[in-house]
């Protein structure tokens, strides 16, 4: 495992093949498949957004989602996550795996968890993973969009590390 620094938080439980975990995993995927998101995907597949500024279009979609979120809040609706009892700090990440700051895993045990990711839009990423040591895990199931965002986050963190190394090198 390469060591890319990543100050992330994770909550998790042992995966007991609970349908409750699978339901949340699926629901967190469909959270991204809201009506405006579905409309945008269909428009993109028809080529209807080719002449549009993609960044501006993404920002407008996210603004629409925020308005929907505020409306739900005003109606007293709130997204409730399953209570996961174990909490940890992720210290390093790589493509398809991560390492915790503390040894909280039991080796070769399957887990379900959520990682709060700082990418846009900020969201809870549901994952299934298997402990390969007491502090390292390999992801076994991750939604396609989340995997792309995870990989992009790794690249961004690698760039930060390269800049930091340059500063140290130039400063010495």
Walk me through what this model shows.
This protein has a 6-stranded antiparallel β-barrel with strand order 1-2-3-6-5-4. By secondary structure, the chain is an alpha+beta fold. The chain has helices at 19-31, 35-46, 54-74, 144-171, and strands spanning 4-14, 86-94, 97-100, 110-117, 123-131, 136-142. It has one domain (4-171). The protein contains 4 helices and 6 strands; from the N terminus they run βαααβββββα.
Supply the key terms.
172 residues
- N- and C-termini, Cα separation: 29 Å
Radius of gyration: 18 Å
Order of helices and strands: EHHHEEEEEH
Q: Tell me about the biggest sheet?
A: 6 strands, antiparallel, barrel
- The overall strand count is 6
Count of all domains: 1
Q: What is the structural class?
A: alpha+beta
Strand content: 25-35%
Estimate the helix proportion, in percent.
40-55%
- Stretches where pLDDT falls below 50 for ≥5 residues? none
Count of DSSP H/I helices = 4
Mean pLDDT: 86
Gross geometry = globular
Q: Going across the major beta sheet, what is the strand order?
A: 1-2-3-6-5-4
Provide a quick synopsis of the model.
The chain contains four helices and six strands; from the N terminus they run βαααβββββα. It has 172 residues and is of the alpha+beta class. It has one domain.
């Amino acid at each position: 495992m390469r060591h890319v620094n990543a100050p992330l938080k994770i909550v998790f439980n042992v995966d007991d093949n609970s349908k409750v975990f699978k339901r949340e995993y699926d629901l967190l995927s469909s959270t991204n498949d809201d009506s405006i998101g579905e409309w945008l995907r269909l428009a993109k597949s028809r080529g209807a957004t080719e002449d549009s500024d993609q960044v501006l279009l993404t920002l407008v979609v996210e603004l629409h989602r925020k308005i929907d979120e505020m409306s739900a809040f005003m109606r007293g609706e709130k997204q409730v996550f399953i209570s996961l009892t174990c909490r940890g700090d992720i210290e390093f990440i790589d493509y398809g795996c991560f390492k915790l700051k503390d040894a909280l895993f039991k080796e070769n045990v399957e887990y379900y968890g959520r990682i709060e990711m700082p990418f846009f839009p900020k969201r809870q990423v549901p994952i299934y993973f298997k402990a390969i040591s007491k502090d390292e895990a390999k992801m076994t199931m991750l939604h396609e969009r989340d995997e792309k965002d995870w990989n992009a986050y790794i690249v961004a963190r690698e760039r930060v590390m390269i800049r930091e190394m340059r500063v140290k090198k130039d400063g010495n």
